[in-house]
Design a protein that fits this description.
This protein is mainly β. It has a 22-stranded antiparallel β-barrel. Strands 3-9-10-7-8 form a 5-stranded mixed sheet. The protein has a 3-stranded antiparallel sheet with strand order 4-5-6, with helices on one face. A hairpin with a 6-residue loop joins strand 23 and strand 24. The protein is globular, with a radius of gyration of 27 Å.
């Protein structure tokens, strides 16, 4: 609490100084202060649907807005990089070891492309839910950064539906009414990175069209690391007579090799080395959106959405073996002493390599057809003679998913620890390791409202709520173990107030509930007796409880223009989120496998500070975040590779232990400066404290090392239509790690580090890298 009091005291000082700078210049006593000029009012989405917004200063929660210019500031558009460098409370980790598969954390809540992570953020693309139906995952590689017009990150708000436990990210894409002209970007750089971007937008009378295409390949700097992405976005829009309609298509085909984590002793010999392979994910994606808005009169309007998505994901994952030669001289492979490994016909699996080495090859396929509709009405009639905005609506999100998976036992190449086939499919009679094929039907219904009433020109109040109903039906295609139905429902309320102390200074406070239903992926992997592999092989499904968050927020935001052409913005926010029945992917005693489990209550609370100054030539900012994320309920988990475990490989998590993977302190700073009208230089720095490793929920071992990384960029406008740009990432060539866990070094021969015993395993960040490019606009 002493640290928190110091932070709050410093926060108050930041605001006081920003307010003083707005009016306290060198003036004589009694001389009139200059009149302040306030910037244009920011409007943020009050709901996921496009077309209805609210004054940002009337939102009783922390909000952050990034435009396409913010996303492209470092040379070429990278949305997640911009969030990581600009927004307090946001950090990225490289659990998969691929730059296009990061986990995004905001206030300790995750939006991740990887199954097995608790998804605590709701993500929307043009008003349509972007969390994938099977596991609520967020595949960032499917979003074409080039086509993003605006991103809004808001705090916990029940109106944004399931998964908005810690907040929601709403991504709005460009259209031909917003973007006119054409642009071609060609760039390349370190690690065999080659990329081409093309966007074009045009409007004729009431009709507009926009298209964006990106092609990218990066060879990677680590062993077996590579990325190939093809993205397309197109929008056709019409507006007139009080209405507007758009049909847009997002399509992507990606192939991502991510080497994941490697033991520290192996990284000490070769920082680019991978541990076990392959680690490949391929995605095919299509989303079609139809959005409409119509003004019934001056105060009432309708907004609507209908969408369809197709998603095919395949994962190929090399792992440590779960079978090894039996010690009874039988010449067979065993799962454990006395438990013989069996194939798909129930026949014992022989020791076909005469002692090994062996490895597992996990394969999974997720084929989803998703669809949904949303409709809302917005009304701005006065209430009790005061300005009021009421939005009410409903949503439906459904999906049909076919999931299949299997594990093979095969050989292992000693030089690089890659699975060597052909292998034999494992089908244990007790179901602990077995092929899976399950059909999943899910339906999510929501009814919501949000109302903002101005009691006075300075005081506004908001009340909101949403009723969520989730139905998840499972149909086992190979038997009956997975067949079953699950239903969850809850009404989540929220309320808050904002007050303008000065025209450019607003304080706010709020309370909000939110929930998420267990996903099909979690429900089908919640049996401790039959845990899942890292590729999510599913077995019987004891019911899980839904997760419910209770969040309070309070903060101050200010924006002043102390001098002509100068804008100073500052924000201070405090949040406290308590989660009941939180779900965690808990390790199993079976190597490389785990299961989902309700682990009681967890707490995330902290403070965000930010300060920005902007002139015609200078943009500078600083941000600091303190995040304290802890377990509030004790439980026992298996973590046999953790050196701090007890004699049977368990760890005892106690109330007050910190959640893994969340740095307590984040610092961010950046500057952009126009040296001339044509030449711009800039840089960004991000620093983070260490974090506890996954598998060390009991906090028994040291954290990862703290780090600071600096990126530099520049651009030069050769002509009005031609620009050159360059970027240096990790300019100091810092060795640092954003993700850590434990690896079974004794289960896999490591020829580069023979006799390795340290099980700590990190995902190393990329070393220094350079990119250069040209941009042609016409």
């Amino acid at each position: 609490m002493a640290d928190l009091r110091q932070i709050l005291s410093g926060a108050a000082l930041v605001l006081v100084l920003s307010g003083v700078s707005a009016g306290a210049q060198d003036h004589s006593v009694g001389e009139a202060l200059p009149e302040l000029t306030l910037p244009t009012v920011d409007v943020v989405g009050a709901t996921p649907l496009l077309g209805s917004g609210v004054d940002r200063n009337k939102v009783p929660a922390e909000t952050h807005i990034l435009t396409d210019q913010d996303i492209s500031r470092n040379g070429y558009p990278r949305a997640l990089r911009a969030l990581n460098e600009d927004v307090p409370g946001v950090t990225l980790d490289a659990a998969a070891g691929n730059p296009f598969q990061p986990n995004l954390l905001y206030h300790g809540f995750l939006a991740s492309p990887l199954q097995g992570n608790p998804q605590g953020l709701a993500v929307y693309l043009n008003g349509a839910r972007f969390n994938q139906p099977f596991g609520d995952t967020v595949n960032w590689d499917l979003i074409p950064d080039l086509a993003i017009e605006r991103m809004e990150l808001v705090g916990s708000n029940p109106v944004f539906g399931l998964n908005a436990l810690g907040g929601a990210l709403s991504v709005r894409m460009k259209d031909g009414f917003i973007y006119h002209g054409a642009e071609i970007d060609l760039l390349g750089g370190s690690f065999a990175h080659y990329q081409g971007n093309l966007q074009y937008g045009a409007q004729r009378d009431n009709v507009a069209a926009y298209v964006a295409v990106t092609g990218l390949h990066e060879g990677g700097w680590r062993d077996l690391q590579s990325s190939s992405l093809g993205n397309f976005y197109g929008d056709l829009g019409w507006r007139g007579n009080g209405g507007e309609a758009h049909i847009n298509v997002t399509a992507a085909q990606t192939r991502l090799n991510g080497p994941g984590t490697s033991p520290v002793e192996l990284l000490g010999v070769d920082p680019s080395a991978q541990f076990t392979a392959p680690n490949l994910m391929t995605n095919k994606y299509t989303q079609v959106n139809l959005t409409e808005s119509y003004d019934i009169n001056d105060t009432t309007s309708l907004q609507g959405l209908a969408y369809y998505t197709y998603f095919l994901q395949k994962v190929y994952n090399g792992n440590v073996p779960n079978l090894s030669p039996c010690n009874d001289g039988s010449g067979l492979l065993c799962e454990s002493p006395g438990v013989v490994g069996t194939g798909i016909n129930g026949e014992p699996i022989p020791d076909f390599l005469n002692g090994g080495p062996y490895s597992d090859f996990d394969q999974q396929s997720t084929n989803t057809n998703g669809y949904g509709v949303s409709l809302q009405a917005t009304n701005r009639n006065e209430l009790f003679g005061r300005p009021n905005q009421l939005i009410a609506g409903f949503s439906f999100d459904g999906a049909q998913t076919l999931f299949g998976a299997r594990t093979q036992i095969g050989g292992l190449s000693l030089s690089d620890r890659v699975f060597a086939g052909p292998g034999i499919t494992i089908d244990q009679t007790d179901g602990s390791i077995a092929p899976v094929r399950v059909a999943i039907s899910d339906a999510y219904y929501g009814a919501f409202f949000t109302d903002t009433l101005d009691f006075t020109p300075q005081l506004s109040a908001n009340v909101a709520g949403r009723y969520n109903l989730a139905h998840i039906d499972l149909s086992d295609q190979l038997g009956s173990a997975l067949t079953g139905g699950h239903a969850y429902s809850r009404f989540n309320p929220s309320g808050g107030v904002t007050y303008k102390l000065l025209p450019g200074l607003t304080v706010y406070a709020s309370y909000a509930d939110a929930n998420r239903a267990p996903t099909p992926a979690e429900l089908t992997c919640s049996n401790a007796a039959s845990p899942c592999s890292l590729a999510n092989f599913f077995t019987g499904d004891p019911n899980l409880q839904q997760v419910v968050s209770h969040t309070i927020e309070a903060g101050v935001r200010s924006q002043f223009r102390p001098l002509e052409g100068t804008t100073v913005t500052s924000n201070i926010a405090y949040y406290r989120s308590t989660l009941n029945n939180d779900i965690l992917f808990v390790n199993s005693p079976m190597q490389g496998r785990a299961f989902f489990q309700n682990v009681g209550t967890t707490l995330r609370h902290g403070v965000d500070l930010s300060l920005q100054a902007k002139t015609d030539r200078l943009l500078a900012w600083f941000a600091y975040s303190y995040i304290d994320a802890t377990f509030q309920t004790g439980f026992t988990a298996s973590s046999e590779n953790n050196p701090g475990t007890d004699a049977i490989g368990n760890i005892q998590v106690q109330p007050g232990n910190h959640l893994p993977g969340i740095p307590s302190n984040l610092w961010k700073l950046g500057v952009d400066y126009k040296m001339t009208d044509a030449w711009t230089v800039g840089g960004t720095g991000v620093a983070a404290s260490g974090q506890f490793l996954f598998g060390d929920e009991a906090n028994l071992t040291p954290k990862t090392p703290a780090y600071f990384v600096l990126n530099l960029h520049t651009s030069y406008q050769l002509t009005p239509h031609l620009q050159l740009f360059g970027l240096i990432e990790n300019a100091f060539n810092t060795t640092y790690y954003t993700f850590g866990t434990f690896s079974p070094t004794s289960s896999v021969p490591i020829v580069q580090a023979p006799g390795a015993t340290n099980t700590r395993s990190y995902s190393p960040a990329a070393p220094i890298a350079g990119t250069v490019g040209i941009r042609l606009k016409f």
